[in-house]
Give the backbone structure.
Amino acid sequence: MARRNPRGWLRSGSLAAISTAALLLATSHLAQAKITRIVINSTTSPAFNGQSFGSVGQYEQLNGTAYGEVDPSDPLNSIIQDINLAPRNANGNVEYSMDIEILRPIDAKKGNHVLLYDVVNRGSQLAPGTFNVGITTASPAGDGFLENQGYTIVWSGWQGDLVKTPTNFAMTVPIAYQNRNPNQPITGIVRSEISMLTASEPGSPIFGAFATSSVGYPPVSFDTSKATLTERVHEEDPRVPIPSSQWSFATCNATTPFPGTPDTYGMAQYQICLQGGFDPNHIYELIYEAKDPLVLGLGFASTRDFVSYLHHSSDKANPVAGTIDNTLIFGASQSGRYIRTFLDLGFNEDENNRIVFQGMQPHIATARIAMNIRFGQPGRGSGLQHVEHGYPGLESPMTWGIYDDPIANVTGGILQRCKETKTCPKITQSVSSIEYWQSAMSSDTTDDFGLHDLTIPNDVRIYHFASTQHGGYSPIGPVPPVATPVCEQLPNANSYTYNIRAVLVALTKWVVNGTSPPASRYARLSNGSLVRTEQLDFPFIPNVYEDVGDLLDQRTLYYRGPKFDGFNMSGIITVEPPLPLFNYLVLVPQVDADGNDIDGVRSITLRAPLGTYTGWNTRAAGFGQGDACDLTGSFIPFAATDAQRTPGDTRPSLQDRYGNAAGYAAAVTAAANALVREGFLLPQDKAVAISEAEAQASGLLP
């Protein structure tokens, strides 16, 4: 079996520094740290319109750009794909730059001295919207949870293929060339999947679906006869070729119809135009020969070195020098997969062999990210049931601890390299039910044949937010939620916001003072809470899709060519589309008589339910009907009274459950008290969580 030599794949370097002045820095100390200059473009002090946050006080915000370089000859950099093919500067190093932001307490002594690095998702911040409730333009901090805790929050660009905008966090990385010669381009096969989420469009970025914010790789030729475009309704349907005369490498819209304005080299974003337009009922797949791959793996090194500098450097240019005692990293979905890959590939060790992040919270992420790959597409999902099913990410290892995968014939675990170098962080992994149905979460905790639970390492906690959907739901959002045209059922209205806040605080205490967080809570084979889809006890509900097993996303072992290194999520893909070899067994959480998950962290909403909350939804007519609605769960309301209950619906009405509003309030209060005792609701959040739950139910109760 393939096994790892962690030290042989690790690399190091030190990157970042930030200045509080709007000027350029180029000191000898910074040059040694691989930062060549820093530009701070704006300082907002105080931030948030002068709002003060409890005992912490006011915050200030610094925005700018960091320019750095990495030594490609350092053996600890060897895993960065194509690093040896990137152009070098006069120092023999590879250069890059990235957008940065620091949000810090103005009076650093009042902060909690914990740096929270929020991994941006396709260039956008996540932590504020995840943890703070009620963010609006007028109230940019919402209830200010993160600020009241006193975190120093840091962002930096890491995704080198993003289209640069005034509001996102991007990174500039070099192109790899044969012999590092720009006159000798590298070419290779690239596959792009395009799908419309709401309405037909005449054209699309060349990278569609979840990667529409990417620039895309330029075609070797804009002659469409040298590429292939196909369409199909369902992921498993045969691909139907579209004649080359009916599409173009071009930009088109309502005013510039097909064939549109032809693409040219050097565009801000490459486009594709289809005669008659791209409709949301089809999956479109483009396969073409591209050139100029980006050295995207530099993104991992930039995060590593930036945070290490902020944590350890006493340089006067470091705006948080001497104020950071501990470091955490948070990321959700794409950026959660970034965290898992960052750790897996050994980037949690800096050039001085120190740990970079002492705590990690990868959220709604079970797989790894396809970034450190030639012609990588980090904007893609790791494979869903309907869209982007065949993209890399779900390859082994998926487990935290060491596991022998007999199907892929490899042995390894996400923690393997950090165990070897003693740089493992404390980890709180949190997932929604969507990750079981759409991202093979069971492969993180069970063997490949669904026979045994695996042992979870002591420095890892896993929390399944039972019966929730991928992006969660606001605790102050309307119930019932607003319907979407894509899905047959309403989106899942079960919020995990207050639960994930408690998990972040628990992780912080675990890192800062060693206080153990609550024990893991997730579906297990041993207690019957994790089952095959045919064993699922989902109740019959009128007008709800019955064959829910059809919505399960299969985890597939693919052949992507001999140069692809799925074990290290690196290498070169030469076979597109990939060849399916074997399907792993994927398991899902068992449900109760209402159809709600019986395992995991059960929120106030789930303990006092207003309906059935699922980790799946079904695509509606005109949107690939019958497939899973990507990343969206369902809310199927209970009837208010027995008289209003649909014939055949065996679920008790709200009146039967609670009687009236007072009965519901009692159930909510009991649920909140239990969650506080269990450590999944902060005491200071209890009263407002109860009030918001009651407000959401007010229009539904009899």
Q: What stands out?
A: The radius of gyration is 25 Å.
